[in-house]
Structure formats: C-alpha cells, structure tokens
Amino acid sequence: MKTIKIVCLVFSVVAVLITIVFFCWWAMKDRIVFGGESFNQIRWITATATPEEPCYRGAMAYDLQQHFLVKGMPRQTATVLLGRPTWEDFAEIEYDLGHCLWDVHGLRLYFDAQDKLVHSRIVQH
Question: For the chain, where are the E strands, in sequence order?
C-alpha cells in the first residue's frame, strides 16, 4: 500500500512538471521558433521554400511582429512592407512562413473597419 502511494505521488509530481514545462514552452514558442533572425524586407519578399529551408520566412516573423507591425498601421503600409499576401480577406491578410516545426505556419494580420492594424499572430495550419 505504501508503494502505491509513493508511485502515485511520483506520477503526480512528474505530471505537474511536464505540464509546467509544456506551458512554458508554449508561451515562449514564438520567440524560440520564429525569433532567430532580424526582419529583412528584401529577403522576406524574395524568400521561397527549399528542402534545406522549409521554414523560409519563419525566423523573421517574431522580429517583424515586435518591431515593425505597429498597432494602427494602415493596411496599405503593411502590404508595401511585406509584399503581396498569400491569402487575404476583408479584415485579415496572411503571409506564408513555410513548414516550421511539424506544420505549415503563417503570419496573420488583423485589420479593423478603417483598415488599421489591430494585431498580428503566428498561426498554424
């Protein structure tokens, strides 16, 4: 009986530690995975996926979000900065980042009714 209690306690502690590690990684994922390179407009616009670099824009996405995509930026300014989007809708546009980690990712920009940037986020497909 005492052994079962110890095993349950150890299992509980391990489960809590794994949960903490997972959520810390999840909170820092954008910075870790998508923050390896400074934004370069020419490289961003001309980048294409290759077998050696399937996440062809991914490394610039975090820097772009933190330093260039300013809340209230007009949609036209964003498209001049980033080029033609991969996908667009009335209030959203998205730029393909490539096959990053285990899935395809994109940088999605959200705009209000006046075409001003509300926020951006890295999305997984």
Answer: 87-88, 92-100, 103-111, 117-124
User: Which residue(s) pair with 99 in the sheet?
Assistant: 104
Residue with tokens 């095993």: 7
Which amino acid is residue 51, in one-letter code? P
pLDDT value for 120: 96
Q: Which of 97, 86, 98 is nearest to 54 (CA)?
A: 98
Q: For each of the domains in the chain, give its residue range(s) and CATH number, in order of start.
A: 33-124 (3.30.1450)
What is Dmax (Cα atoms) for the chain? 69
For 29-78, the pLDDT digits (tens) are 777 778 889 999 999 999 999 999 999 999 999 999 999 999 999 999 99
